[in-house]
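Quiz preparation item.
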C-alpha cells in the first residue's frame, strides 16, 4: 500500500476556539483509533473521557491509553472522533475510524486521501 502522512488540525469539541495543528500523522488503516500527541490534546483542553482503554498493538502486546473527543480536520475532510492520547514513544496515527468519519479512502498510488463517494443508507419506507 505504501506509507504516507497527513497534517491535521484538531479542535476541542467543548471549546471550539481552542485548536492545534499536528504536522505529521501516519495514515494507518490497520489502526482503529487516531493517535494524537497528548501534549497537543492537553494544550487545547481535551479531557480524558475514557481512561485505561485496552488496545492490542500490531505485535500482539496489550497496552492501555486514555481517549478523548476532538474535531479533526485534514485537507477538505473533517469529523468528530474519539482519539488516543499518545504517550512518548507512541506513533502519531490517522486511524480507520477517523477515515470513515471523513468519508474518505486511501489512494495508495497517489499517497493521499480521496472522497469515498455517496454514503450508504437503507431505502425509504413505503406505507
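Solution:
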Amino acid at each position: 500500500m505504501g506509507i504516507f502522512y497527513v497534517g491535521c488540525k484538531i479542535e476541542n469539541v467543548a471549546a471550539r476556539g481552542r485548536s492545534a495543528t499536528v504536522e505529521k500523522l501516519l495514515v494507518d488503516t490497520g489502526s482503529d483509533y487516531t493517535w494524537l500527541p497528548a501534549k497537543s490534546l492537553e494544550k487545547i483542553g481535551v479531557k480524558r473521557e475514557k481512561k485505561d482503554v485496552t488496545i492490542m498493538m500490531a505485535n500482539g502486546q496489550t497496552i492501555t491509553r486514555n481517549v478523548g473527543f476532538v474535531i479533526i480536520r485534514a485537507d477538505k475532510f473533517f469529523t468528530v472522533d474519539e482519539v488516543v492520547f499518545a504517550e512518548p514513544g507512541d506513533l502519531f496515527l490517522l486511524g480507520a475510524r477517523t477515515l470513515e468519519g471523513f468519508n474518505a479512502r486511501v489512494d495508495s498510488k497517489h499517497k493521499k486521501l480521496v472522497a469515498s463517494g455517496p454514503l450508504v443508507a437503507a431505502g425509504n419506507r413505503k406505507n
